[in-house]
Specification:
Helices cover about 45% and strands about 15% of the residues. The chain has 8 helices and 7 strands. Helix 1 (about 20-30) crosses helix 8 (about 220-230) and helix 4 (about 105-135) packs parallel to helix 5 (about 155-175). The protein has about 260 residues and is of the alpha/beta class. It has one domain (about 5-245): NAD(P)-binding Rossmann-like Domain (Rossmann fold). The protein has helices at about 20-30, 45-55, 70-85, 105-135, 155-175, 195-200, 205-210, 220-230, and strands at about 10, 35-40, 60-65, 90, 140-145, 180-190, 245. It comes from Paenibacillus lemnae. It catalyses: D-glucose + NAD(+) = D-glucono-1,5-lactone + NADH + H(+); D-glucose + NADP(+) = D-glucono-1,5-lactone + NADPH + H(+).
Length: about 260
Amino acid sequence: MYEDLKGKTVIVTGASSGIGKAIALRFGQEKANVILNYRSNPDPIEEMIAEIEKAGGQAAGVQGDVSKEEDVKKLISAAHEQYGSLDIMVNNAGIENEVPSEKLSLEDWQKVIDVNLTGAFLGSREAISYMLEHDIKGSVINMSSVHEVIPWPHFVHYAASKGGVKLMTETLALEFAPKGIRVNNIGPGAIYTPINQEKFDDPKSRASVEAMIPMGYIGKPEQIASVAAWLASSEASYVTGITLFADGGMTKYPSFQGGQG
């Protein structure tokens, strides 16, 4: 646990399930004030608020589509109005769908880019603007992926969005380091979340993915949440502009693990 996170105000986009939910609950355990963003499903939010408050934190749910500028501005306003500050922005919301690249429609391409890349940009821009205005040495954490460096056939829009998040994060980190604002990425590997539950529940599919992970198992959302808490804490005060891969070694060319090549 990180004592300096107590009382800090955090926005987590895409907080109603999967990695976003785990991150939001972890900040609640750190006794932070958490704005829980969701796009369309408010059902888990009340239960999450109760769990965060039981842990000693505070929380409020805010509906919004991160690809829309006005909705992102609404998130920042909610943090200020509810808790009087914004110290940590976690741009977690993301989508993916599998389509062979030659059949990928412009609509599908744009939808993924709008949420994964433009959404992360809008969240970063608005959070940084607020931090500059209020002289806050804050932390912005973007959710990238191992696919910012690993090509992924049939997911060209997703891979392109995460490659964009990589250089966007590095550029913002360089630009705002003199102001004490840190900007970093988390790059999850294969994580057991609702979006891929069906795939990982199938023994054959699960085994094929585990074969690409040197540590040999699918990760949990809570393991990504631990990375987010560390990056936001003063323990990481000299860390900016990186992608911290939490992937069981997936980015380390696992086909060479046995000495092949």
